[in-house]
Amino acid sequence: MRSHLCGVLRTTDVRKVVRLCGWVARRREHGEHLAFVDLRDHTGVIQCVIDNSVDVRSEWVIAVTGTVRLRPAGTENERLDTGEIEIGDCTVEILNEAEPPPFSVDDRDESDEPVRLRHRYVDLRRPRMQRNLRLRSRVNAAIRSAMDRQGFVEVETPLLWAPTPEGSREFSVPSRLHHGTFYALPQSPQLAKQLLMVGGFDRYYQIARCLRDEDLRADRQFEFSQLDMEASFASQDDVMEFVSEAVLEAAEAATGERPPPIARMTWADALARFGTDKPDLRFGMELIDLTAEFAETEVRAFSSPVVKALCVADGATLTRSRLDTLTDAAKRAGAQGLAWFRVVAAEEGGLALDSPLDRFLSEPERAAVLTKTSAAEGDLILAVSDEYRTACSVLGTIRATLGSPPVGEGPHRYVWVTDFPMFDGVGADGSPVAAHHPFTMPYAEDLPLLDTDPAAVRSQAYDLVLNGWELGSGSVRIHRSDIQSKVFDVLGISPEDAEARFGFLLGAFRYGAPPHAGFAFGVDRLVAILAGEENIREVIAYPKTQSGADLLTGAPSALPASSLAELGIRLAEPPVAPPAPPTAAT
Ligand code: ASP
Fold first, then answer.
1. Which of 152, 161, 188 for a ligand 1 pocket mutation test, highest count of atoms within 8 Å of Cβ?
2. Among candidates 348, 455, 343, 328, which has minimal Cα distance to 394?
3. What is the mean pLDDT of residues 359-384?
4. Could you tell me which of 471, 468, 319, 334 has the C-alpha nearest to residue 401?
């Protein structure tokens, strides 16, 4: 239907006769007999000079046949890649008329998101959405090619399946054939891929759809895609190498530049230095330990087991009300308080601390605060005294609040975080809770600690983090039933319970399970950051709103009584429609 794409024509094409297809981006009358039509396809726009008796309007779909020519001197448009040329002597064929669009198909148009989502097919024509989804396609292709090259086999696993023990709420699908029973939509193909290892597919991958019924936020949708992989006879180093290759190749496909090899950091180091297991390495502001310096302190605010601090460069200008807000945030995050010190010039020369707490500090404590933080005049020092985990994580949150640029803003700093604790806190029954999932292998040298000090057991689990967002996680799996029983025991999962919940996996493991390890990372998150976006909705063709509604189709919606009957379902309460979006639709 067409000979060229609109946005790729240049002065080298002058005198060519071309046939272009696309949408009318704009029409301007030009004198008595002519009109300018900007014709748009996904590559850009080009100006076509048409007879003004031809009726074409915004977003009509047309084909234009004409000759490429230079624009008259002085009328070039520098903002357009095609701005030096235009199409003259045009004949226009109208392929389809269109109603006026609900918003202009233009990145500068700031129309409300609900209106855009309701008319997503128009929104998708915008350059930004075209760019993002095409970037996503390049990322997917690069991932597939990297995995393929490394000998991985793509295997599809079921969407209608049994529950997966990953810790999120699951979506359930009622069975029509067996009333009262339900399939679970997979939170991930975790169990399926481990079974593939038993089945002899020693390198598996899939760009898998995962479904989790959790509250939505900037980096979370009900359904998302992961590069899911698993390998037999592979160590955690092998897995990190395989995944690094896919991620770096994807980044190169998206940005044109291959990032350097991905750095590694232990979980303990990440917590001590950045106060989080998702460190944003785009800036410093590392946590500083002042515990030793305050060991003998008389100051009650610093008498908890640990004192941690951070130094905010030029932060002394933060207003009192901003400091109060930070203090409230610290308290909400579990700290008893937040101490702050403005670093000012001392009258007698050198530096002094301006803070309500300053007069309580001893001279050595004051000196330590200044020297250990390497503070300079005009800086702000923030400190938290608490239990170790709380002191670190509260300051980690404040560090991110004060220092983190928008997530999609460069540079892209990837980091592997390794050696996670095996357990994270305790559940309602007092048993430790698995930090990753119950099939994660502890370090061999930590196995004896399962009996004596479970909190100190490190697991062979690893996360991949980019600019403070967790891209994904994985682990070496337990393939031996004696270790698995021991871990279930510590987790408070009885043999009967384990059999009922994952009997099919444990059963399979009796038939020759190889040692195996794997990983999964979120493609939506990676693509959003590579595209410079803050919200994964911008890289998903048909995303849901914060309240879980699909504004295009109206899902979720009530089922007709006949469908409910077929499924054997009687509603206890009338259906509750999702809340209406905040703006009126066109
Ligand atoms: N199934 C895990 C997840 O979705 C990843 C893995 O352990 O391979 O987070």
1. 188
2. 328
3. 96
4. 468
Share of the chain above pLDDT 70, in %: 99
Position 111 pLDDT exceeds 50: yes
Residue 100: cis peptide before it, omega within 30 degrees of 0 = no
CA dist 463 and 519 (Å) reads 9
Residue 90 pLDDT > 50, yes or no? Answer: yes
pTM (predicted TM-score): 0.94
Tell me the best of 197, 473, 478, 524 to mutate to test the pocket of ligand 1, counting ligand atoms within 8 Å of each CB and taking the most: 473
Specify the ligand 1 atom closest to the Cα of 475.
7
DSSP class of 161: B
Work out the number of other CB atoms within 10 angstroms of the CB of residue 563.
11
Question: Which is nearest to 501 in space by CA: 135, 244, 191?
Answer: 191
Strand, helix or coil for residue 281: coil
473 lines ligand 1 (CB under 6 A): yes
Separation in Å, CA 570 to CA 178, 559, 562, 564? 15, 11, 11, 7
Q: Is the pLDDT of residue 272 over 90?
A: yes
